[in-house]
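Worked example 3. Consider a protein that binds pyridoxal-5'-phosphate.
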Amino acid sequence: MCALGQDLATTTETPPAENPWPSTTLFREDGDATTAGVSLVEIARLYGTPAYVVDEADVRRRCREYADALPEGTVAYAAKAFLCRAMAGWVREEGLSLDVCSGGELAIARSVGFPAERIIFHGNAKTPRELHDAVEGGVGRLVIDNLAEVHRVAALVPEGRRQKILIRVVPDTGDAVPSQKFGLSIATGEAGVAVARVLAQPELELVGLHCHLGSQIDSARPYEEAVRALAEQLALIRDAHGVVLPELDLGGGQAIAYLDSERGLDPRSFAAALTAALEERCAGLGLPVPRLIVEPGRSISGPAGMTLYRVIAVKRGGGRVFVAVDGGMSDNPRPSLYGARYTVKMVGRRSREAARPATVVGHHCETGDVLAEDVPLPADVRPGDLLAVAATGAYHHSMASTYNATGRLPVIAVSARRARLVVRREEPDDLFLREVGL
Ligand SMILES: Cc1ncc(COP(=O)(O)O)c(C=O)c1O
Ligand SMILES: N[C@@H](CCCC[NH3+])C(=O)O
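Given these inputs, the predicted complex is written out as structure tokens:
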């Protein structure tokens, strides 16, 4: 544990924190910035760059915000957004459930004693080993995503136990759900077949339906439509099979702000709209209101994280400025995969120069290795400067690669004026470990 940072009462800050940054981030007049009271310059000095920084208190606050917004429901953090053992511990302590989609995520959760009954396991092509580990480990909910899984799962359930099951369906509402590899279609009747097959297996206890609408959804409207459509399915299941399923899982997808101009989906208004739509539709269908489950990932860990990079080289010419840093597409593949855009700030030095558009590029041997296109940076940005990229707490660490045999980044957690390393930097020796022969 290493104490960093300074007493903020003695420093001059320029509040408030900008929207895409962790909520405790303050940009100071001397050019430095602090998150949770810890200087980003000091983090870079002590732990090196590039590095992911995650604000633990911000993660915990976002967990609580969701839990408070949905007091009668279940909030399952989507591990795929960002999971390490520390994060699994924070989520466990905050009382949330955990949505996992691989044996690896399950293993991380179990390694910190995450209660199995609070784990939901989903995935469109779970391997036999994953199904075995999930059932044997006693996960609270297993999400059936294809017909072949029904018998496979039933065969794994030990004598005297029943496995709780959700069935992932494609609600076919509006344009929110294009044809996709996930889930069982209601329209083609596959979802109905799955319901009948699960109900026919004594080892399985069908508790509800599951869906996931997509990513970066910034309005409650698609969720309202989906929850109505799923309630209608519950009524059809009641009419056809005489069972009233008690749960609906609406998945994740809640948007966050990556840019100052963007706004995330507020958990309170999202939960209120969802609950109202569900209650109204259930009343119309004569159904008891099922328990809601939501699986936010990005909106819990995304804004709580940032990445620090050191500028290695600056090239000016042809009307463009390229700022090359010591990381790149191996720690953030999102710009090259999805055209994702980011907010970038120089920290650690005060510049009096006006901001000019610059393109922040990585150090990988790939033309598409761009981190941020045309972002405003001081005209005198130079090698040695430190750059912070906002909202990198979700789908960065979890999507990182070792392209060009580059070690993956450390994760530094900050909280209450302290920084601590929770995932160390990957070194060449770590890469050699997997090589077992010449
Ligand atoms: C089933 C399911 N639940 C939850 C999530 C988390 O989504 P997000 O991080 O956008 O909230 C995903 C990922 O898209 C998902 O596929
Ligand atoms: N990886 C994506 C989101 C995919 C969500 C997975 N279900 C992203 O970075 O935005």
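Take a moment to read the result before moving on. The CA atoms of residues 102 and 168 lie 16 Å apart. Residues 221-241 form the longest helix (21 residues).
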